[in-house]
Amino acid sequence: MTAPRLICGSAGALALGSLAVTLWTGVDERGVALAFGLLIAVGELTRPQARNSVRAIGTSMTGARAREAAPIGAAGALSYALLGEVAGRPAQHGAAQVVTVVLAASLLGSVPHIWQGRGPTLDHLARRVLTVGFAAVCFQPLYSRGVFETLDGPAYALLVLTLLVLTELCDAVLAAVLAHSRTRWPFGPLLRDELRGLLGIGSAVCATGAVMALAVAVAGLWALPVFCLPLLLTQLSLRRYAAVRATYRQTIASLARSTEVAGYTPAGHARRVATLSLAVGRDLGLSGAELTVLEYAALMHDIGQLSLVDPVPAGATAGLPPAEQQRIALLGGAVVRQTGVDAAVAVVVERQADPYREQPLAARIVRAVNAYEEKARDAGPGGPLTALEELRLGTAGNYAPEVVESLARVLSRDCLTLPLPG
To answer: From the centroid of its chain, how far is CA 338?
Structure first.
């Protein structure tokens, strides 16, 4: 059984079991359940279109992306799972009711996203059910038995925060496992990106969940709208930042197309190089921020040709003398620096023609993938296999062996070309 099926199956079994128990015993404190359910549903309803780790090759993962698509819903669900008192009186709900309310509210808030085909909703719901179930099972039975009665205020708050952190860590592992199973990208870098995201929006979710649970215990349900307001503002800021980054990437993509519009390179060349470079970068374990630099550099790797008086035939720079390749690369780096793009992108563009032992990994990737794309394009029906073999023969001095082998794995795994020779 694959990991997604196992995770979704476990979440489904937990949800069905919780629903059966809740239907048998009834819903306790319906007003509290309704208040938290509305908060979770609103959080799900206002989440942006899902853009998590499982994405098509050709888009980059950035450190700025929110690992939690619905932070308000997540904070509300976790605070309900760790709710011990309401306005000074003990709460009566159990772990099964927590899972049932969270699932029902999440489904209700996800209806517009499901209707508009915004996935991956199933993975998102499975993670939500399992993580909330973990928190509720760890807290509710022990609290109802009076295990935490001896803890004073600070110790109890620290306990709640610790459980929240453990829950978010479990969610990060689940997200990385699902992404690895769906895409076959290396698990380590995916988990590292999820943990980095946990330090951002994840820490805000944990803090807000803990504060809401403690505040409702003292002040009642009126604390919910008050203490979720900062997280709402954070979510709005993240959405605006994501929109700015999307516009920024579109601007770079448009600038990269200038060589195609001017007739220096074939149509779609920069996009194909960027797509394949990202796949190789993921296979080699680059982080989200490194992938962003790699994507921008791959899109703009040919921009130095705009400074040439005589265009290179078909824009194929891989067959030029090394000195000419380096000259074009330096011209491209100078253009990139004038656009205001991150200096790291300009460095990759400038050094893409250097000897590979002196290049940063991103430059090695751009050089090998650009050469592959040019050779495969010009070699006829058997071009992909011929181009890959030429790159392998050139690993003695022109192309990094680890990058060429990664490229071969990506092409074979993602069926981007014919089966590789044995």
So the answer is: 30
- Checking if the pLDDT of 62 tops 50, the result is no
- Please provide residue 18's backbone torsions phi and psi, each rounded to the nearest 5 degrees: -65, -40
> Quick check: helix, strand or coil at residue 321?
coil
| Preceding peptide of 120 cis, ω within 30° | yes
Exposure class string for 86-110: b at 16+ Cβ within 10 A, else e: beeeebebbbbbbbbbbbbbbebbb
Give per-residue pLDDT as tens, 10-27.
Answer: 999 999 999 999 999 999
- Measured CA to CA, the distance from residue 107 to residue 123 in angstroms comes to 13
**Are 52 and 179 contacting, i.e. CB atoms less than 8 angstroms apart?**
yes
Residue 91 · residue 83 · CB < 8 Å: yes
Report pLDDT digits (tens) over 137-185.
999 998 888 888 777 778 888 888 889 889 989 999 999 898 888 877 8
More confident position, 197 or 93: 93
Q: In the beta sheet, which residues pair with residue 57? A: 59
The string of DSSP letters for 12-52 reads: HHHHHHHHHHHHHH--SSHHHHHHHHHHHHHHHHTPPSP--
Cβ count within 10 A of residue 72: 25
> What is the dihedral sign for C-alpha 33, 31, 159, 71?
positive
Q: Please name the residue that has the structure tokens 């005589």.
A: 310
Q: Distance (Å, rounded) from C-alpha 135 to C-alpha 119?
A: 25
pTM: 0.78
Tokens of 167: 């829950």
Is residue 306 a contact partner of residue 335, using CB atoms and an 8 Å limit?
yes
Neighbouring C-beta atoms of residue 260, cutoff 10 Å: 17
Main-chain dihedrals φ then ψ at residue 90, nearest 5 degrees = -60, 140
- Cα–Cα distance between 159 and 192 in angstroms, integer? 25
- Report the C-alpha gap between 372 and 415 in whole angstroms: 15
In angstroms, what CA-CA distances link 235 with 28, 375, 414? Answer: 31, 46, 34
| CA separation for the pair 141, 116 (Å, rounded) | 39
For Cα atoms 46, 52, 56, give the angle at the middle one, nearest 5 degrees: 125
Helix or strand run (H / E) with residue 404 = helix 401-413
Q: Report pLDDT for 119.
A: 57
The pLDDT tens digits for 312-357 are 887 778 778 888 888 888 988 888 888 878 889 999 999 988 888 8
Strands 85-86 and 89-90: antiparallel
One-letter amino acid for residue 370 of the chain: N
